[in-house]
Amino acid sequence: MVLPIRTNARAPSPGALPAVAPVPARHYRVPVRVAGPLVWAAAMGRRRSFVTDAWKAVQALPHLVVGVEHIPASGACLVLCNHYTRPGLGAWWIALSVTGVVAAHRSAHVPVDMHWVMTAGWRFGEGDWRRWAIAPLTRWAFARVAVTYDFVTMPPMPPAPHEMGERTLAVLHTVRLAQRLATEGGLLGLVPEGRDTGQLLGAPPEGAGDFIALLVATGMPVLPVGFAEEEGRLRLSFGAPFVPAIPSRRADRDRAVIAQVMAAIAAQLPGDNAEPGSCYYNG
């Protein structure tokens, strides 16, 4: 398959998109039949299939899916999605919903388990008591979840000075994982913003474009996904896979690559810039 190369793309400004979804009332809870076994497996250091758990979590939820024809039936893919969250809709629903839908549209004979790059822990500001009471617990818990699902943890963005070594190791680990998945035809997912922004589409940190360029260079095309809410449903929109144009000049690479990626994701979000595509409702 020959994939299009995006050039001359301009990243949308965060203010050009709605800051929140129009129907923010629903509270999404992970089902006990998923949360219970996950807690047990994480405590015991055992592996679980994230695809299986994701499907159990999302199959009963009302959702709208657009552009399913763009989900590759086989082959490696780097799935990039916006980091939309709100009270009652945690960031884990991005990975759960995207994974559940993608896996349902992959061929039966190809690897379907999906790996994600996730935060190593929550971060709180200076003077916030949660920095000492909650943040260490999240690092402990997230590390065990990553082992259970074979995810990669990365320090919250932007990394603190003492976390630079940890971030470098995480980048190397992710690149090696991408190399393996590119050979096996596997799936790798991440959100370029890397943190809560309070917006439907936020600004990625410096270096996100360079990181994505490293992963694309392993042979993984980008599958852009827009994650939002619409009429009380989760809304996932998939764009056509593409290979970002990577400038040969390193000084231009970060900004050029992330501009292409964020423009592709923005086109999948509700609004005037949304691309048309086939869709289906569940619920």
Provide the fold topology.
Elements: E1 5-6, H1 32-44, H2 50-58, E2 63-66, E3 77-81, H3 92-104, E4 114-119, H4 130-133, H5 135-149, E5 152-154, H6 164-184, E6 187-190, H7 208-216, E7 222-230, E8 233-238, E9 243-244, H8 250-266, E10 279-282
Parallel strand pairs: 1-9, 2-8, 3-6, 3-7, 4-5, 4-6
Antiparallel strand pairs: 2-10, 7-8
Helix pairs in contact: 1-5, 2-3, 7-8
CATH third-level topology: Glycerol-3-phosphate (1)-acyltransferase
Instruction: Label the CATH architecture.
Output: 3-Layer(aba) Sandwich
The tally of helices reads 8
The tally of beta strands, per DSSP, is: 10
Q: Stretches where pLDDT falls below 50 for ≥5 residues?
A: 18-24
- Assign the structural class, choosing from mainly alpha, mainly beta, alpha/beta, alpha+beta, or little secondary structure: alpha/beta
Molecular structure report:
With 283 residues, the protein is α/β, with parallel strands linked by helices. The chain has one domain: Glycerol-3-phosphate (1)-acyltransferase, CATH 3.40.1130. The chain contains 8 helices and 10 strands. The strands form 2 sheets. An 8-stranded mixed beta sheet has the order 5-4-6-3-7-8-2-10, with helices on both faces. A two-stranded parallel ribbon has the order 1-9. Strand 7 and strand 8 form a beta hairpin. The radius of gyration is 18 Å and the shape is globular. The two termini are 34 Å apart.
